[in-house]
Amino acid sequence: MQNVAVKAEPAAANRSAGNSVVETEQLSLTFQTADGPVYALSNVNLTIEQGEFVSFIGPSGCGKTTLMRVIADLEQPTQGRITVNGVTPRDARLNRAYGYVFQAPALYPWRQVDRNVTLPLEIMGLSKDEQAQRAAQYLELVNLKGFEKKFPWQLSGGMQQRVSIARALSFEPDLLLMDEPFGALDEITRDHLNEQLLRLWEKTQKTVVFVTHSIPEAVFLSSKIVVMSPRPGRIIDVIDCNLPPDRTLDARETPEFLEIAHRVREGLRAGHSYDD
Ligand SMILES: Nc1ncnc2c1ncn2[C@@H]1O[C@H](COP(=O)(O)OP(=O)(O)OP(=O)(O)O)[C@@H](O)[C@H]1O
């Protein structure tokens, strides 16, 4: 495995206190199906430190979602080991270590926006006051103040996805798992949400794991990009890309940005030739 470290501003240097949030060692996962085994992940070694924004990028079907689901204890590895916050994914899940944002917003249409956000808090048994305070706090954080009493179907797709981000943040996990959250949105909305997500990450200091197909999205958002090969998913490259923290979308025109994007593209190409 080739590791490429792109030197840029040490903007996120203060983020990592050297605490691993996710650690995998020789992690493999094979699905047994009626048509035979599907080798989804192969010998994945990965460390995600506290406060990092880590994107998984790779071709369709390479195992990005599967790796995310292993972190979330929604799939079990067939080989190797993984810890989340130093414990098993199961214990991390029981400790409510992470919030999960899916490709689609997955909101309940019959619940108003604030009551979608408070749903996990109801399940946790928080008081009504605490629920209301958190809903207000996190809806404001995703710029949805004033929309608390709307129903999801009264909001745009981008706003719905921001509600689901507020919901994932509402029980205050340190780790946010986001599986192509903006994949279904038009490019302008996606650009806007990318900027908002970056500001949110800077404000909250959460650790974010983010699945995407988009090279510009990965480079714009991430402090680290994990490039994966076609199935079985292996890590081809891990690229550090700490662009300046206060960047706007204009950063996509800078030489530093284009250099990192080029390295990601090269990694993706290298992954393909491996299988030829
Ligand atoms: N429950 C399952 N049973 C059998 N095969 C599965 C299962 N889940 C995923 N797979 C297979 O594992 C491989 C990896 O799937 P995964 O969804 O992780 O890929 P991905 O990189 O996230 O793809 P995409 O970018 O298209 O969302 C695929 O070949 C998929 O068909």
TrEMBL record:
Any Pfam family hit: ABC_tran
Alphabetical list of InterPro entries matching this protein: AAA+_ATPase (IPR003593), ABC_transporter-like_ATP-bd (IPR003439), ABC_transporter-like_CS (IPR017871), ABC_transporter_ATP-bind (IPR050166), P-loop_NTPase (IPR027417)
Superkingdom in the source lineage: Bacteria
UniProt key word Nucleotide-binding: yes
GO molecular function: ATP binding; ATP hydrolysis activity
Keywords: ATP-binding, Nucleotide-binding, Transport
UniProt-listed CDD domains: ABC_NrtD_SsuB_transporters
Domain spans labelled ABC transporter: 22-255
Family label: Belongs to the ABC transporter superfamily.
UniProt protein name: ABC transporter ATP-binding protein
Species of provenance: Denitrobaculum tricleocarpae
